[in-house]
Design a protein that fits this description.
Layout (H helix, E strand, L loop, with lengths): L14 E6 L2 E5 L1 H7 L3 H11 L2 H6 L2 E7 L5 E11 L2 E9 L12 H10 L3 E6 L2 E5 L1 H7 L3 H4 L4 H4 L5 H13 L7 E7 L5 E13 L2 E10 L1 H23 L3 E5 L5 E4 L1 H7 L3 H4 L10 H17 L3 E9 L5 E13 L2 E11 L1 H16 L4 H37 L9 H15 L6 E9 L2 H8 L1 H16 L7 E6 L2 E7 L3 H17 L2 E3 L2 E3 L4 E9 L5 H17 L5 E3 L5
Parallel strand pairs: 21-22
Antiparallel strand pairs: 1-2, 1-5, 3-4, 4-5, 6-7, 6-10, 8-9, 9-10, 11-12, 11-15, 13-14, 14-15, 16-18, 16-21, 17-18, 19-20
Length: 566
């Protein structure tokens, strides 16, 4: 065996066993000493208690091993793979008490926190003997609970193999402090917390201890997922543009293009990306293009309504009209966006017009008709542009609006609530209230009058709520028959006034359905309020929701304000 147990002992446990394809290959000296047996006898005992197949089947299992005095010891085993072999790190059950070292040498802390993004830990024989407060906060586990905890209990199963490979480097080389590995740890609520971990080892009291500094990547991972979704959404919109669009580098190469470009020129996008943007035009036109884009990148002058001819994959010559403008990143001119439309048909019409004009130059009426036709075509192009603009605006509104009630949807409500909480905490002494509104006995109404009438009730309530609040207030359909209203700069008593006004208006406004007037419905409302310094929006939702349940429990058609229970 080329393995040295010294580099496993600080992080996992001094009690170790290696398994090969046919059985136990080696055990640690510490395990043999604990059982009071020799190494060969210990290997046979482990092989009998944990056959190779069982050791490879489970990551977490228990084993009972004999001791020389005649008794037995139970171990909890954590399994991981390293260089084709199975390694078992064993912890005795129950774990004997061991004093926790709260103070370590100064240089250790200096090295740890110079490398740490958020916090760090020190591990002795598999147990955490030091943990910074920032690490405990990231994990959501009290400091006292972390100290003395086995490290493998904190590490997610999918990260055990990565930790094993990293600790070998940390504990065997003296100059590897900046080697890092990304690990997933299990926080106090069971959620995964992602860290970038840097580690090393040092000697203390005749034992080797491992230290690790950790930078919390959880929020970064969330932002990366969000950015990936945004990029995907942008790419979808980019591809659906009805005009050709491509990004060009300062060196004249095409960085990216949309599907319309591929459709126009007849080449696949993979072929277009990376090619020179002058590759598809003749030599004379290529020089004109280079001159235009040289002026664009050096002087920043926008290119507008220029024409050129390009050759498609089938040999057909296509006339395009293009615009180009610079894309800036951190003040630097990184790319140009070129947008073009196929005007071959338009140019063909223009040529035909010139021919007709030469033949019929004496016929002013025909010339006027041709002019009117061109102006009409230009008007169609303008109308198409306006329709596209309106369509984009409508698409944006549809993405944030509930289709039935025409108020904001749940997703946009969450975004706006996050914005208002962030704005609240930028104020010196701000306040924010939330109303949670539920239609009373809505299911009974649906069962009595039908779902179409139920939909009419939802639209009716949404209209009454919008007519009862300020322009700066935000109303959204929270889900089902529930609505939510965000009240910026509104204290608890002000929010109560608004809520009671909504109750009164809903109660007193009859409901017109199918040409007949039916009795009005009623709503129950819960009010929650937070002030500057309270950053948890879920707490505000909980407050308003709890107050709503209280209102429903008190005969409905009423307002309840959440109050802190002493």
């Amino acid at each position: 065996m080329d393995f040295d147990i010294a580099w496993f002992e600080p992080v996992f446990s001094p009690y170790l066993a290696w398994f090969g394809p046919s059985g136990v290959l080696s055990v640690s000296r510490a395990l043999a000493d604990r059982l009071g047996l020799g190494v060969p006898e210990t290997m046979r005992a482990v092989d009998a208690a944990l056959p190779c197949r069982a050791a490879r089947a489970d990551r977490l299992l228990t084993a009972t091993l004999p001791v020389s005095s005649g008794g037995q010891v139970r171990f909890l085993c954590v399994a991981f793979d390293l260089e084709g072999n199975r390694v078992l790190a064993m912890r005795e059950l129950p774990e004997p008490g061991r004093p926790v070292m709260e103070l370590l040498d100064r240089d250790t802390f200096v090295r740890m926190f110079m490398n740490a993004g958020l916090g760090g830990i020190v591990v002795d024989r598999g147990l955490v003997v030091f943990a910074s407060e920032s690490f405990c906060r990231s994990m959501g586990i009290p400091h006292g609970a972390v100290i003395g905890m086995p490290l493998v209990d904190l590490v997610a199963s999918q990260s055990l193999d990565d930790l094993a490979g990293a600790c070998r480097k940390w504990c065997t080389t003296g100059d590897s402090e900046h080697e890092h590995v990304d690990l997933a740890l299990v926080g106090g609520s069971g959620r995964l917390v992602h860290f970038r971990v840097t580690g090393g080892a040092f000697e203390r009291g005749g034992r080797r201890l491992a230290w690790m500094v950790m930078h919390d990547l959880t929020e970064r991972r969330r932002l990366e997922r969000w950015l990936k979704d945004e990029r995907k959404r942008y790419q979808e919109l980019f591809d659906k543009l009805p005009v050709g669009a491509l990004y060009i580098s300062p060196r004249g190469r095409i960085v990216d293009c949309n599907a319309t470009v591929s459709d126009i020129v007849g080449y696949p996008r993979e072929r277009i990306r990376g090619s020179l943007f002058t590759e598809y035009v003749g030599a004379e036109q290529a020089e004109a293009l280079r001159r235009d884009f040289r002026e664009l990148f050096t002087r920043g002058e926008r290119i507008s309504r220029r024409e050129t001819a390009i050759e498609a994959s089938d040999g057909k010559v296509i006339t395009i009209e293009y615009d180009a403008r610079l894309i800036y990143k951190k003040g630097l001119r990184t790319m140009a966006l070129m947008v073009f439309a196929d005007i071959t048909e338009k140019k063909t019409l223009e040529l035909e017009l010139l021919e007709k004009n030469a033949e019929m130059e004496r016929t002013l009426w025909d010339m006027a008709e041709v002019k009117d036709a061109l102006e009409a075509r230009a008007g169609e192009l303008n109308r198409a542009t306006e329709e596209l603009k309106l369509l984009n605006e409508k698409l944006n509104m549809l993405s944030i609006t509930d289709g039935l009630t025409e108020v904001y949807n749940h997703r946009h409500f969450q975004d706006r609530l996050s914005e208002e909480v962030e704005r609240l905490n930028r104020l010196k002494d701000g306040v924010l209230s939330l109303l949670m509104i539920d239609i009373d006995d809505f299911k009974k109404f649906n069962d009595t009058y039908g779902h179409q009438c139920g939909d009419a009730v939802l639209k009716h309530i949404a209209f009454l709520i919008k007519s009862s609040i300020r322009n700066i207030d935000i109303v959204a359909r929270y889900g089902g028959e529930e609505f939510a209203v965000i009240l910026p700069n509104a204290a608890s008593d002000q929010a109560r006034v608004v809520a009671e006004r909504i109750c009164r208006i809903v109660r007193s406004t009859p409901l017109a359905l199918g040409g007949s007037v039916r009795p009005g419905v009623t709503v129950s409302i819960g009010v929650g309020t937070i002030r500057t310094g309270e950053t948890d929006k879920s707490r505000l939702v909980h407050m308003a929701d709890s107050a709503l349940y209280a209102a429903k429990a008190k005969w409905k058609d009423r307002v309840e304000v959440w109050e802190e229970v002493a």
